[in-house]
Amino acid sequence: MSRPPADPVAPSTARLLRTDLARLQVDGRLPSLVACLVRDGEVCWSEGYGAVPGDAEHTAYRIGSITKTVTAVAILRLAAAGELSLDDPVRRWWPRAPYGEVTLRALLGHGAGVPAEPAGPWWERAGRGEDELALAAAEAGREAPHAPGRTFHYSNLGYGVLGVVLARATGEPWFEHVRDAVLAPLGMTSTTYDAPPGAARGWSVHPFARTLLPEPTHDTGVMAPAGQLWSTTGDLARWATFLLTGHVDVLAGPALRAAFEPQVGHGAGGPGSRHGLGFQLLDGGARGLVGHSGSMPGFVASCFVDPARGTGAVLLANATSGLAAGPAAARLLATLEAAEPTLPPAWAPVDRVPGPLAPLLGVWHWGPRTSTWALETAPDGTEEVVAAEAGRVLHRFRVRGARVVATEGYFTGEEVLVRTAPDGTAYLDLGTHQLTREPYTPGDVVPGGTPSV
Where's the Beta-lactamase-related domain (predicted)? Predict the structure, then answer.
């Protein structure tokens, strides 16, 4: 089911968004700030504030770690095609790789425990002229700060390693491959390795004097997969649309949405420390925001989408600091939603209930607690069962092959089973919690223990 085509925002909404943009530019002391919003696959608003050196939609800025999402999609694309496995250890593709025992999946989700930065000069400011051999030599004998899978630890180095794996798996240099296999099919022809003519200049703003100091834009070499790319709001609007819908020639919707599922990150490290496979997961929107922030000397960037509402926000600034990238995207999206609420897909009956979901529907009891399990259509058009208690969603369930699995809630990833008691009564087994059609009575023995309220 699709929503009606997107329309440009109303003039009153544009004024509110312009005010948001102006406050972000002024409060952040940003030489220039450009932004756009996507709704249902189309740009519905685009504007710049400050000394934008050209057209707001087509002026290039450096996008920093948004580059990581492009690298991740390229890896995920190969995995979907069966050309590699996310559970491959790095050494399968790069025998002399540093930290070669960690998996591609762990690197994508920043759960591999490897150092945050490569050894040697700061790659973002000094550039990295060396190749993969020099990177491996520089890391030789260096101890990882964490055991794999133990905790979230954001790692630029990990994405440098992933770039080498991508090049070895495809036989092409990293940028040539992502350009041809990922960017070109999406029409992102303005996303480049180096700064194109007319690109914004990167600046550092003096904290007291209000003067501008030029920042370097070095080639980051072997670390390019972590933050090298330049792009425009127009191109990143295409990227945001891809994140909302997938693309048959790049990564289909189901495989892309699987990359949005949380890995080891739990948010304790602050905004953006809860991660999927290459994507930051932020609170906000209808059911959370997905995307990535980015920073390089002289630039800050943001690209986040709200999958449930079909909206996305892009912001690009040419200052080393001053823009809280994730919150800024959430702010624009919240203004859009408040001024022009998202239209839900029209309700429509279904022809049939998917067989594995049918026995779950209705009222279930866990001790004195009562929940209602009803069929709903998710934003991506997939039928799911939503279990709610007093209006609060407890769990969501979808069919995964021959299983029905929780996709949200305490039992995420676990299967719900329909079982039959000795007396012929059907009940649900959810992680040893027994849910029955009638409330428990005193003295009932329940698998998994006596329920507590």
Answer: 23-333
DSSP 28: H
Calpha distance 232→440 (Å, rounded): 60
59-96 per-position pLDDT tens digit: 999 999 999 999 999 999 999 999 999 999 999 999 99
Secondary structure (DSSP) of 142-200:
PPPSS-TTSS----HHHHHHHHHHHHHHHTS-HHHHHIIIIIGGGT-TT-BSSPPTTPP
Q: What angle do CA 187, 190, 196 make, to 5 degrees?
A: 165
Range 292-299 average pLDDT: 96
Please report, for the chain, the start and end positions of each structural domain, with discontinuous segments joined by +.
11-339, 358-435
How far apart CA 53 and CA 199 sit, in angstroms, is 8
pLDDT of 7 strictly over 70: yes
Angle 17-19-22 from CA coordinates, rounded to 5°:
110
Q: How far apart are CA 220 and CA 299, in angstroms?
A: 15
218 CB contacts (<8 Å, ≥6 apart)?
125, 126, 127
- What's the residue count for the chain? 453
Kindly tell me the burial class for residue 342, based on how many C-beta atoms sit within 10 Å of its own C-beta (0-12, 13-18, 19 or more).
middle
Cβ–Cβ < 8 Å for 52, 59:
yes
Mean pLDDT of the chain: 91
351 by Cβ neighbours in 10 Å (0-12 / 13-18 / 19+) ranks as exposed
User: Under a CB-based contact definition with an 8 Å cutoff, are residues 60 and 199 in contact?
Assistant: yes
* Assigned CATH for 11-339: 3.40.710.10
Cα-flanking dihedrals φ and ψ of residue 337, to 5°? -65, -40
